[in-house]
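ARCHIVE CARD
Drawer: 12
Card no.: 0347
Subject: one protein chain, sequence and derived structure
Cross-reference: see card 0346
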Amino acid sequence: MKLNTIAAAVIALSTGVAFAQNAVVTIAHVGPTSGAIAHLGKDNENGAILAVEELNKAGVTIGGKKVTIKLMTEDDAADPKQGTAVAQKLADAKVSGVVGHLNSGTTIPASSIYSDAGIPQVSPSATNPKYTRQGFKTAFRLVADDAQLGGTLGKYAVKELKGKAIAVIDDRTAYGQGVAQEFTKAVKEAGGTVVATEFTTDKATDFSAILTTIKGKKADVVFFGGMDAVAGPMLRQMKSLGINAKFMGGDGICSTELVKLGGDAIADNQVYCAEAGGVEGQQKVGMEAFKTKFKAKFGTDVQVYAPYVYDGVNLMVAAMVKAGSSDPAKYLPVLAATKDYKGVTGNISFDAKGDILNGALTLKTVKGGKLTDLAVIR
């Protein structure tokens, strides 16, 4: 009995020491991993998985203690109600931080819950300006917002594409409406003419009525505020109706999946989009290296925002290391004070609202069945 007791004590002691040396820090990722844009949500989730695996392999020490980073993944299905339910679940679980959500429509309502719980939230892709305009100290954004995104595309439609009759469609989501409104505003400021304003939903599959109206207006540019899952079928129906207009959209359509969904309905230099982010010069080396190891691990190309999720996780952990604590109250001020963090998406600094400073946009077109960069704009 005595030996057994000693053995048990030794086991308990050694287990306790191991636990003390390998405390668990939980970071969550949230995105739509089910539904029409699950390919984008999974892309983002994979960025988080890769970051956590690399961090744990390299070893992380916070406050003098070795820690294991645990990734908690949740699906918000791009639905605001599910997004807030997930946010409450994560708040109750007392996670140390959240990287997500993907859509503005889920990110914005969830941000209130994270703010109340004091949990830092880094969104890799939500572009509606409202997200960081609510006064929440816990909200951070790694990409340029719709004011820059829609504004740049609106000016491009008039000045570069020489659009004379421009039609605007949005999917009634927070993202779709936001980017379409900014686009429309920029078109008018550039002296362009919007001949039609139409609406659909993020689950629609038949666009014949609104496209027939647009054809009647002789639109030479069609802008869609929405996601690739809707844009692809829309492009196919445009072709079947004989609409040869240029097709534009924000980062929601700027994916490799759009090229697959649109297929032969997409002519060279017909589709123009802007990804809310971009790297130039020497920074391209790091991005290309990331894309190579991402494909090697997951067997698929990066869709859009996996690199920003990857940076978001690493940035959050770097703030914890610098603060010497994974307690949100202690590392949040360090995260907010981030200046020139070198990520694969470029140098990251935040302004007082939590927006990225000097955020870039990458204008792209589809050529030869592939997304091709046109220019990086800041």
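Annotation on reverse: The longest helix spans residues 38-58. The CA atoms of residues 186 and 215 lie 23 Å apart.
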